[in-house]
């Protein structure tokens, strides 16, 4: 029976096909798995640069491209027949000899650029002349491509080669090209190792083992049920990036873990996968905690998609920090606190009282409980930067001090509250991991928001400051659009025209969001967009979400930032918080960001 591994491009391209073609392709793959009569069979590709590449006829006029080795088939893509044959001829495949992951090369394009590199090399000194072959090979660079790499003369050459090379080949070259050391290049490469425990010998001819080491490139589908899940699930469920996979699926952490990363680096994906892993393999109940109730509902819905087994899903409780505190206070008082009617307390009053009670009494009480009677065995925290000190003390007390007790993710640069907590000060010494690669934001948008946020340090979750430097994106895209209007009315008309053009481009309404700093502006936006089914919310309510395209309105002087207090310390904190709120809203976009204002623009908008 064939062993089928699906590549991440295949579900994306399958979903873009017409429904009859998509249906026929899925039926063909099910037959292929069962190896029954009428199943597609691999057809050799004339002129292929890799003899293992074949095609499968999946539907009328459409073929899948596979890399095969004995009974293992790695399904890369599905394309119309001429494009599929061209793709199959153009690419070759290998295994990185150092980290053992699979690699795809655009061999035809590399052959075309080699003459230009050779001509350039005659006129200039070559970039890597001072580094011996042995050192380059130790970074996992492909021996067959070494003559090509030796022709490189500038950092721009390396950047131009990026779309044609596997990332595990390009990243070490990019580090060396910008003057980085061999050790820095090694760290970039080592981030692609799928497991810290994976240190055994690597067989470059073993495709199956390499695919198992490449969770971002291959999802095995041994049966129809798994195949349908892989084809239908969101990409973040099925194809985690190697660093995400390694952090989320680690067998055991002896101490609390803190994962710090900028926008789009996959912190929430890691938190979700870690919660799922602990639910399936842990030693007791799991709590996934976040900053707000809306975020908790979003995380709960995403867990429902990630965890299919209902028994395992029920082991994970999702909540926000305030509701958790209120539930425990209700337990201490023996009744649910009244929010309306006689004796009612406002949410703010009730929250203050709950946090005071929890930090002074309940936390201590819980700490005296036997480990097996703690409410939770494992706690995963998302949006950690906005959790208060009192809430941290409760969380620390709600799980026993043992391995895999606390797993924390956050970004101090996205802090939207006045919270300033050092985890060590609340009894949570952590081992920190830092993420520097944004998978969501294109480089143009990432560069824009880094300038908007400012590169200065902010108070971190561990002692000292956290700085925003060294972040990079994995892809390029559109620059943010900044639009100035003469009046609020013309700005709202421009917003509607922009959203209508996006919908006309085929962007689903659910992939578009409109944000504003105030509820008044949100109401105006909703009125202007009447009849268009797109989300409109304040900047704060976009926190934790992501969309293909985002439009932010009213980003004007006097609105963003809101007028700050006069006291110098309070003023500085308020301005930093306002800048963070705008930063968070901007980073919700995956592909396109539109910012508008009437009158003078916000001083936060980078020139």
TrEMBL record:
- GO molecular function annotation: 3'-5' DNA helicase activity; ATP binding; DNA binding; hydrolase activity
Please tell me whether the keyword Cell division is annotated for this protein: no
Task: State the UniProt keywords alphabetically.
Answer: ATP-binding, Helicase, Hydrolase, Nucleotide-binding
One Gene Ontology term of the biological-process aspect is: recombinational repair
What Gene Ontology terms describe where this protein resides (cellular component)? cytosol
- Tell me which Pfam families the record gives: AAA_19, UvrD_C
User: Where do the UvrD-like helicase C-terminal domain residues begin and end?
Assistant: 541-597
The protein, known as: UvrD-like helicase family protein
Q: Which organism is it from?
A: Nonomuraea polychroma
